[in-house]
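Researcher: Sequence recovery benchmark, item below. Answer with residues only.
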């Protein structure tokens, strides 16, 4: 195996949306073949594993139009242009849970769909959750969000995953990270 990379010969934007764009890139692959590749361009995102003072994890339940379901998920969101992942994690925690973290640990970065999308998901463990106060940035939920917030004991969350009641991949990956760190 080699560590060579593809070279882009041309790129054509075929869609520009609010959340992502799509392009068709003409690329020369590392083994010399030239092909057209469809790529979804998505900013990096942060996935939050917020622990309250009782060591419960905070999840949000929200409607996901693409799958037409209400899902329990770890809070998450995109990193804004010019924003650090840590700042995005704090902002998203306040926006989605109503709580600000005072402790933060980056756990890893993963690509959810590297076959066609360049999004990197950066996972953070958040602790020291508190109600926002003076000096904290003002935050608002996105217009398309209607969130229910609930705190889950680790064993209860593991049982939901085992029963197949959690359908969100990033939530399962986040719990796997927590279990690996505890193990």
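Model:
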């Amino acid at each position: 195996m080699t560590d060579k990379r593809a070279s882009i010969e041309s790129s054509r934007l075929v869609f520009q949306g609010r959340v992502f764009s799509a392009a068709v890139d003409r690329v020369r692959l590392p083994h010399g073949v030239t092909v057209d590749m469809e790529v979804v361009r998505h900013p990096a995102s942060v996935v939050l594993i917020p622990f309250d003072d009782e060591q419960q994890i905070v999840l949000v339940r929200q409607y996901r139009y693409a799958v037409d379901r209400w899902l329990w998920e770890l809070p998450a969101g995109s990193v804004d242009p010019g924003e650090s992942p840590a700042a995005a994690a704090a902002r998203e925690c306040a926006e989605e849970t109503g709580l600000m973290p005072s402790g933060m640990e980056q756990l890893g970065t993963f690509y959810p769909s590297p076959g066609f999308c360049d999004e990197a998901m950066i996972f953070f463990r958040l602790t020291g959750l508190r109600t926002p106060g003076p000096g904290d940035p003002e935050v608002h939920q996105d217009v398309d969000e209607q969130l229910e917030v609930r705190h889950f004991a680790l064993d209860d969350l593991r049982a939901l995953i085992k029963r197949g009641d959690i359908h969100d991949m990033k939530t399962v990956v986040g719990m796997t990270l927590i279990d690996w760190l505890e193990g």
